[in-house]
Design goal:
Elements: H1 9-15, H2 35-40, H3 43-53, H4 80-88, H5 97-101, H6 110-123, E1 129-132, H7 142-151, H8 154-159, E2 169-172, H9 186-190
Antiparallel strand pairs: 1-2
Helix pairs in contact: 4-6
């Protein structure tokens, strides 16, 4: 996505894909079918999900009321690789991107997301391009910029993996599904 230096929210939205002439060609995908319940007739899992949404789960000792413990018997039994194989198969071809886009694996941990993404990308046939971020600290004062660069070298910044911020290296292949994020204007956020 284009970077809008010192742009306000309106300028950032104007530069986003939603303001592009291409936006009319974008298809919004939503999750509608719980494949686990549909394919396996897993009524225990379905009933468990309904009890969460109806707030009828019995309280568990030593846990707050707003904490839910997922019973071991309804968790996925195998490792994540067998889950990927079950949903996508052993090998994926770029021509199968329509199939890939109709399935999703949901997880609550960011580390699991990266493992799943890497394994699925490795199964996708074709050349892998690695695109590195261009990292710099933006500040008006040269002296402050030098001080910050000493405190936070690029290697340190690239080793961090904060929630909502893309990884330092983006790996892509033809047929891979890509999610676009909006630009963040740190100065605008900091001044609020």
């Amino acid at each position: 996505m284009p970077v809008v230096k010192r742009g306000d929210r309106v300028a950032v939205v104007k530069a986003s894909i939603k303001s592009s002439v291409l936006w009319n060609n974008v298809t919004k995908l939503t999750l509608k079918t719980n494949v686990r319940v549909q394919n396996n007739n897993d009524t225990d899992f379905r009933d468990y999900l309904l009890s969460i949404s109806d707030a009828t789960l019995p309280p568990i000792a030593d846990l707050n009321d707003n904490v839910i413990e997922i019973p071991k018997e309804i968790q996925h039994a195998g490792d994540y690789k067998s889950l990927i194989t079950e949903i996508y198969g052993e090998h994926l071809l770029p021509e199968q991107s329509a199939l890939i886009s109709k399935s999703a694996i949901l997880t609550s941990k960011k580390d699991n997301v990266h493992k799943l993404k890497n394994d699925i990308l490795n199964r996708l046939e074709g050349f892998e391009g690695i695109y590195s971020s261009l990292d710099s600290i933006v500040d008006d004062s040269a002296q402050e910029l030098e001080r910050l660069a000493d405190l936070y070298p690029t290697e340190f910044l690239n080793s961090r993996n904060p929630l909502g911020i893309p990884l330092d290296n983006l790996k892509l292949k033809v047929g891979a599904i890509v999610m676009l994020l909006r630009n963040l204007n740190y100065k605008q956020i900091r001044n609020k």
